[in-house]
Each structure stands twice: as C-alpha cells, then as structure tokens.
Design goal:
CATH class of the largest domain: Alpha Beta
Distance between the termini: 18 Å
CATH topology of the largest domain: Nucleotidyltransferase, domain 5
Strand content: 15-25%
Subunit structure: Homodimer.
CATH architecture of the largest domain: 2-Layer Sandwich
Radius of gyration: 20 Å
Pathway: Cofactor biosynthesis; coenzyme A biosynthesis; CoA from (R)-pantothenate: step 1/5
Helix content: 25-40%
Largest sheet: 5 strands, mixed
Number of domains: 2
Organism: Phenylobacterium glaciei
Family: Belongs to the type III pantothenate kinase family.
Protein name: Type III pantothenate kinase
Order of helices and strands: EEEHEHEHEEEHHEEH
Length: 260
C-alpha cells in the first residue's frame, strides 16, 4: 500500500492507497518542528482506527512546500515503513517538461497538480489551487508545465485585514448574498469573497487572452469549494487533483529500495 504525504503551508494530508482506491485520508496542521517519531505516534493511532498498521505500507511519496519538514517526513518513511520515499523535487521522475526559466523554483504542489489534471482533462488547462496562496498554472496539452500566477490566499487576505487595521474584526469567510455590505463584517466578507471572484475571473480572462487558444479551468484546494456556483469561469472543481497526481507519479517511478 502507498502512503502519500501532501504538505502545504497550513495543512498536511496523509492518504493511503491500496492499489485500487484511496481507503483512508487524514489531515494535520503543518508544523515544521514535528519529528518523525511524533508523526509516527499520531499516524499509528489513525491507522489502527482504520484497521491498518505500518506493516502494510510498503511505499511512500512526499510532496512538500515546507523544505524544513522534508527531513522528518523522510525519516518517518525510513524508520516506520522501512522504505526510501519518493520526494517530489528530489528523487522522483515526474515525466513532464517544466518550461519556466528556473525549473527548480516550481513548487512541488504545482507540479503534482499539473500531472493530476493532465491525466483526466484533455487540452490546455488552467489549474487553480486555493490554499495559503492561490496559484493559477497553465498546463499545455502535452502535459508540460508552462508557468503561472501566484496571489495571496483568501484566508491570508482576511487575516491581513484584521491584523493591519485596528478596528476590523476577525470574521469567517462566507459567500454574502449581496455585494453591498450594510455593516463592517458584511463589508469585509463581501470585499474578500467577491474580490476573489473578480481576481479569479480577471486572471483567467487575461491568461486565456494571452494564450490565444481554448483552455479548460480546473479548481482544487481547501477553499476552492467556496467559489462553487459563484463564477462561470471555472469548468471543474476537483478536490482529488493533488493526490491523483501523486499516485500517478508513484506509478511512473520504480519501487524504492527497502531500508533496513
């Protein structure tokens, strides 16, 4: 069985694939100081609740945008799964071209999403990933990663309003029924939510105009569902994009050697 670890700046996903389907998924807050042993204690309890144990996991793949965490995640795989993990950006062959000026700068999450989208959706794609940052990436029809746009995430923007302005409270993000806010909370929610809809629609329109050919837009990420039904610019909402890409990468690479 495969253990896929997808680590973002805010949350880390641990998912188990049995060769035919994903049978378990868990999330933890990302903490770069968490050791391999701490991960193991937490994960062993969740595995046990699902009727699993470390012994059935014989492969591991890691995608992380937090470089200081990779050491501990790698040690988790080595010590408790007894396998050398595939690490996106290090020892994993992605099987795609990265067509940007400095390919090493492309985030692991963006490349994994590119693969996860390309194997399902035909043609040229714009992949939107809404997390701590909101990324807009262009994937060519042959699967090549062409580059993209990085903007602050919606939660980051809301937190910045509260932190930088003394009189603005911390509020929950939700879809307002109207654009015109009648109080401070309503005005903040409208500005962030509808402002992000405008950001999404505007960048999609500009990317399509610059590319000059039809493009399919796919959205994923923890807060992407907030925009479902709020804009016609997004063609598909796909919450499994990232782990699908990780599974495909694991299949494109030979099984790593066991660690004793």
């Amino acid at each position: 069985m495969l253990l896929a670890i997808e680590q973002g700046n805010t949350n880390t996903l641990f998912a188990v694939h049995d060769g035919s389907s994903w049978i378990a998924q868990w999330r933890a807050a990302t903490d770069s100081s968490r050791t391999a042993d701490e991960y193991a204690v937490w994960l062993s309890q969740l595995l046990n609740m699902a009727g699993l144990q470390f012994g059935v996991l014989d492969a591991c793949i890691i995608s992380s945008v937090v470089p200081q965490s990779i050491f501990n995640l790698r040690n988790l795989s080595r010590r408790y799964l007894h396998v050398e993990p595939l690490v996106i950006g290090e020892n994993a062959d992605l099987g795609i071209e990265v067509r940007i000026d400095k390919p090493s700068e492309a985030g692991a999450d963006r490349l994994v999403n590119a693969i996860g989208a390309h194997i399902v959706y035909p043609g040229t794609l714009i992949v939107i990933d809404s997390g701590t940052a909101t990324t807009f990436d262009v994937i060519a029809s042959d699967g090549g990663f062409e580059g993209g746009v990085i903007a602050p995430g919606i939660n980051l923007s809301m937190e910045a309003l509260h932190t930088a302005a003394a009189k603005l409270p911390r509020v929950a993000i939700q879809k307002p029924q109207r654009v015109l806010g009648k109080d401070t909370v309503g005005a903040m929610q409208s500005g962030v939510f509808w402002g992000y809809v405008a950001l999404i629609e505007g960048l999609i329109a500009r990317l399509k105009a610059e590319w000059g050919e039809p493009m399919t837009v796919v959205a994923t990420g923890g807060v992407a569902s907030l925009f479902h039904g709020a804009t016609l610019s997004i063609d598909h909402f796909d919450p499994d994009l990232t782990i699908r890409g990780m599974l495909e990468i694991s299949r494109r690479n030979p099984r790593p050697a066991a660690v004793t």
